[in-house]
Amino acid sequence: MRLSAEWTTLADERILEYLRDNKSGTPTKMANHENIHFSRSYLSKRCKVLVDHGLIEDYGNAVFVLTDKGEAYLAGELNLNELDPDEEA
């Protein structure tokens, strides 16, 4: 079972799942995906939050990838309440 935190949103779940399934992605590609119903601009903001918490990494040019912490969360092995913003990935 995934243990989310107060700061997380449904968009965060979709971003992490998208990156797991596609290896990398941009907010534009995510917004165009049939199962993600959020705007590019909102996804971009949420990606920054996920980067700050070490769940995804920004490769530049708005390309994001899942980190080991992001994978651990998706596998139900990480409680997001234990993460601090800007914690090392």
Describe, in plain words, how this protein is organized in 3D.
The protein is mainly α and 89 residues long. It has one domain (10-80): Arc Repressor Mutant, subunit A, CATH 1.10.10. Helix content is 43%, strand content 10%. It is built from four helices and two strands. It has helices spanning 10-22, 27-31, 40-52, 68-74; strands spanning 56-60, 63-66. A two-stranded antiparallel sheet has the order 1-2. The longest helix is centred in the first third of the chain and has 13 residues, at 10-22. The model has no long low-confidence stretch (mean pLDDT 92).
CATH topology: Arc Repressor Mutant, subunit A
CATH architecture assignment name: Orthogonal Bundle
Radius of gyration based on Cα positions: 12 Å
In sequence order, what are the helices and strands, one letter per element? HHHEEH
Specify the helix fraction band.
Answer: 40-55%
Output the number of helix runs: 4
Number of domains: 1
**Distance separating the two termini:** 21 Å
Overall pLDDT score: 92
> Biggest sheet: strands side by side, in what order?
1-2
Instruction: Provide the CATH superfamily.
Output: Winged helix-like DNA-binding domain superfamily/Winged helix DNA-binding domain
How would you describe the shape?
globular
Quote the beta fraction. Answer: 5-15%
Largest sheet: 2 strands, antiparallel
SS content category = mainly alpha
Report the count of strand segments. 2
**What is the CATH C level class, in words?**
Mainly Alpha
Query: Which spans have pLDDT < 50 for at least 5 consecutive residues?
Result: none
